[in-house]
């Protein structure tokens, strides 16, 4: 007996129905992810704009600084004493075998650094503006006091070959045109003026200031020769001073509230307030890489300085650049919020609407940099953030057809922008706070996406 078997359609799939991949959650998130990558192109243009404006600021700052005065390097005062050495060469006449001794004279200089050096530096900073750019410049008054012990040549020269009557005082600096007014030194009860002088060696990038011959006979009559020297500079960015004393004590005061201490020697103590700072250094000759006496030529002392930088700590373009680095994170997380709402509420959001939201997020950075150039970064960040959050919230009302989800989106965006602002302001704890925040965000995404059907 034959049994007739009728073929019926599966109850899981009705006749005429086919599964559309492009309507699945997987396809939608792939398209959103692709759009996120595409939006990196205009985001990169925004970063290029920030870089361009930053380079323009550097050009303007360099122009202002070059006209006012650049970085200041000071090394001095150094006692410079000329001396002569002699060499003998034997010349033998081949015919007569007569020996002639030829004596040659070589003139050299000996350099003696102070036994004690006390430096008192006062720096008054000013902020110069041109268009939307600003630079920090300063007027500095430097006072140096100390003494020299009587120079000892040892075996380097005989006493009769030392030209004491031609001794001078020397200063090495980087920019003579930054000096304001005359420069004089008092030593042995007499005042001597400095004048520009040629360098003692080739390829010397520093300038020299030197006095007329100093009367050392009277300077050392009662023991160590005391001196005091005053010099004023107009400069910018940095002051670097070489502690050439066998024992150097230095103090610096300024109205600049955010100094950066650099160089080979940090201050022993410093006090920084909103009205300025004060700092003190104490450097022994044992802490340096050079001695107190040099014969023939001076070594390069530029690596042995204590420095103070007068720079704006984090300028507006650095802050904008750091904010733009989080652009991909903002776009990705915002799209993820919309995708989760779309998946939970079953409301269809077109890829064009995602594009408009992404472009609004990128406009945040163009608003930020343009407003920052006319105000503070904080105010610009608040204005740009509120503008973008309100725009996206209003736009999402028309997309999501209610007010519950747009309010959630506005709160989420506000929290995200606040989180990024905190990271930008932090320095030492930026990585720690950022990592904890991203971990919390990942946990929230995992929680809300756990029930999404990905088929």
TrEMBL record:
The keyword Transmembrane helix applies. Pfam families: CreD (PF06123). The chain crosses the membrane at residues 29-46, 326-345, 351-372, 379-399, 405-424, 429-449. InterPro entries: Uncharacterised_IM_CreD. The keyword Transmembrane helix applies. Keywords: Membrane, Transmembrane, Transmembrane helix. NCBIfam families: PRK11715.1-1. This is Cell envelope integrity protein CreD.
